[in-house]
Design a protein that fits this description.
The protein has five domains: 142 residues, Glucose Permease (Domain IIA), CATH 2.70.70; 57 residues, no CATH class; 57 residues; 79 residues, no CATH class; 73 residues, no CATH class. 42% of the residues lie in helices and 17% in strands. The protein contains 19 helices and 16 strands. It is rod-shaped and about 140 Å long.
Length: 449
């Protein structure tokens, strides 16, 4: 004769499987109701060996191969002897006192009952309650019981997965994680399952995926499955919207202009990886771009940063390439380098390029300040505003800073900055100076030198 299909004796699956099997099977569940594992009539029996003053024995209408009923030890009956009950209906409660078990709250021993008491078939009870044919009682406020459908076994994965998604919402999202899916299915639908939530979590945490995936990513993936509304940018109160506001502010602080789609991607990444404010800034810094337009001018998505670097470069008479500007702009915007570091690079470069000024530059002077008297003199000589004199980009004026004097006694001279008189002589022999003089003559006549 086959054993009858049984209902799990607790209204929830949160029970610790002690794995102690003797006359019956010892379990520890939550304080509260214990339900009838099968339909039958309740009797009271007295157990002199420690269950308590009374404990219920449920007599099955159809005897099982292991006995004529089921006994419940270490619990307090809540129905009178002779009561006819249905499978899943509450018949007792777990206790922690004189009646029932006196040491561990929630303890229950359940086993088969024979004509002369417990028959020693605890192993058979363990197998019956642990099999995939077991159902779970769910007690309502009114005391009646609903029955949750059978837990599908590993031989029907689609049904098992559907069961997990319905009854284990906190873990079901991990069915979509290839490295965890099988572990979760085994823990709930395998032999001896479903395991307790603690056991299921322990099995998941033992996977390589859990060990090598950041907690922030696990949290994000869980959020995407269980609370997708939190990743909706259209909801002002969602986590995604809050992250986007933080990213938008950080981008504004460094003058970085990015499309909304890019800002949203950064916001989602900040949730995935649990970025701090500093890490968000580093990510944004990496998105700064500096390129060259057709006319050679620099174009960027961070004009504020480019202006800062250009101003420094101008002081050191250096015209950096777009590549160098992007390298430093990204690092400064990311907060991993200060503008002072860029200034140090410029000082080193200028000292190498203008060796005659190296000592002054090393002492802390900027080349533009050093040559300012030359700029003023050049402006007066050429009759133009001083701010129009470009010693870096204008080929005519750049020669002033890279003048190689004539050889002395056959010995070549090192390049240096022209003196004021040398510069004036040089400029007066340029075509630009000649054109200027011609224009003055046409306008005012011959002017005495």
């Amino acid at each position: 004769m086959a054993a009858a299909q049984l209902v799990w004796p607790f209204p929830t699956r949160n029970a610790t499987q002690y794995q102690r099997v003797d006359q019956g099977w010892d379990l520890q569940g939550p304080m509260g109701p214990v339900v009838a594992a099968a339909s039958g009539t309740v009797q009271y029996a007295h157990d002199p060996s420690g269950f308590g003053t009374t404990y219920p024995v449920l007599i099955l209408d159809t005897p099982s191969p292991y006995g004529i009923g089921i006994y419940y030890g270490h619990v307090v009956p809540t129905v009178a002897a002779g009561t006819r009950v249905s499978a899943g209906q509450p018949i007792a409660t777990t206790a922690n006192g004189p009646q029932g078990n006196a040491t561990s709250p929630g303890w229950l021993e359940i086993g088969w009952w024979g004509p002369n008491g417990p028959t020693g078939n605890g192993t058979a009870m363990h197998q019956a309650l642990s099999s995939g044919q077991m159902v779970t009682g769910s007690v309502s406020v009114g005391g009646a019981a609903d029955v949750i459908p059978l837990v599908p076994g590993l031989n029907d994965i689609p049904k098992l997965d559907a069961y997990i998604r319905k009854n284990y919402p906190d873990q079901s999202w991990m069915l979509d994680v290839a490295e965890v899916k099988g572990v979760l299915e085994q823990a709930i639908g395998g032999p001896g399952g479903p395991e307790t939530p603690a056991q299921i979590q322990a099995a998941i945490q033992n996977t390589a995926w859990w060990k090598h995936t950041s907690q922030a990513m696990i949290k994000f993936t869980n959020l995407a499955h269980t609370s997708p509304e939190e990743l909706n940018f259209g909801d002002p109160g969602s986590q995604a919207s809050q992250a986007l506001a933080k990213v938008h502010t950080a981008a504004g602080n460094i003058g970085l202009g990015l499309p909304l789609t890019v800002l949203k991607n950064v916001a989602l990444d900040s949730l995935k990886y649990g970025w701090s404010d500093a890490q968000i800034q580093q990510r944004l810094g990496g998105l700064v771009t500096v390129g060259a337009s057709r006319d050679g001018t620099a174009v960027t998505n961070d004009p504020q940063m480019l202006a800062t670097l250009d101003q420094l470069a101008g002081k050191y008479l250096y015209n950096p390439s777009a590549g160098i500007l992007q390298q430093y702009a990204q690092q400064v915007a990311a907060g991993t380098m200060s503008p002072a570091a860029f200034q140090a690079f410029l000082a080193s470069t200028a000292a190498t390029k203008y060796p005659s000024m190296a000592e002054a530059i090393t002492a802390g002077q900027a080349p533009s300040d050093i040559i300012d008297p030359l700029r003023q003199a050049a402006a007066q000589t050429m009759g133009v505003p001083a701010n129009s004199i470009n010693f870096v980009s204008d080929p005519m004026y750049s020669k002033v800073l890279n003048y190689t004097p004539p050889a002395v006694a056959g010995k070549a001279q090192a390049p240096r900055v022209m003196t004021t008189s040398e510069m004036q002589t040089y400029l007066r022999n340029t075509d630009q100076y000649a054109h200027m003089e011609a224009a003055i003559t046409r306008t005012f006549g011959k002017v005495a030198p």
